[in-house]
């Protein structure tokens, strides 16, 4: 396949420097290869369930099964409740938990796969001219598709349990923007680093579960001691998860200043990850 890498990237590559890899170049790369990205994402989704009797139904069943396990463990056995406003119902706890899991699973799916992403696609690196920088974008798109399916399930459960959601639910995409940028930046960084550091995959496999319990998935921020809250909020996922719950359950918009700060930080991480990837990619073929 002939590469259609944007001119600014070809010029930077020819000159041996990467000061010209601007945020515009990053977005231009994604836009230029949008058809390839969509086609590869569809093919990956199809291959995941090829030969399975239930097929795409597993996209719905997998999060529901995990939700059932977590709800039973925390909501029934440990009798966890979602803050002082909670009715005490395990089903209500399940809704709050499921909302956080939808966000976290996007991040976890993209980042946990990143260290082995280049190793799984060596043919693109060695045998043809291919824009390998789009591979993390494909992973993100697949994760967002899974999120979309899960969000539909969440809305069905929400209507059954609590009635119609507030109108702010239509703004669910607001926290998805910084989440996508943050996840994509780390995916670019780890996918490049994973080529040179093969132990990275095992390290990420340890960090992801730890990060799950350091994120407000199983508990609201409000129940934590005030001395601990600032440290938990250092986790970028915490603000994103809380923003999604505020929109879905309470009808409250995020603070514009805090949101823009988080968005800018996520954009910088995405850009730096892209620069790192484009700077180190020229050595992939020699290492793989």
Describe the structure.
The protein is globular, with a radius of gyration of 20 Å. The model is unreliable at 1-17 (pLDDT under 50). The chain is mainly α and 288 residues long. Helix 3 (34-48) packs across helix 7, helix 5 (90-113) runs parallel beside helix 8 (173-196) and helix 5 (90-113) runs antiparallel to helix 11 (236-250). It is 69% helix and 0% strand.
How do the strands and helices of this protein lay out in sequence?
Layout: H1 7-15, H2 23-32, H3 34-48, H4 57-77, H5 90-113, H6 122-126, H7 135-162, H8 173-196, H9 200-213, H10 229-232, H11 236-250, H12 256-280, H13 284-287
Structural descriptors:
13 helices, 288 residues, single chain, disordered N terminus, globular, mainly alpha
Outline of the structure:
By secondary structure, the protein is an all-alpha fold. 69% of the residues lie in helices and 0% in strands.
Q: State the end-to-end CA separation.
A: 20 Å
Estimated structural class = mainly alpha
Radius of gyration: 20 Å
- Please report the number of helical segments: 13
Outline the biggest β-sheet.
Answer: none
What share of residues is helical?
55-70%
The count of strands amounts to 0
- What is the typical, i.e. mean, pLDDT? 85
What is the element string, with H for helices and E for strands?
A: HHHHHHHHHHHHH
Morphology call: globular
Flag low-confidence runs: 1-17
How much of the sequence is in beta strands?
Answer: under 5%
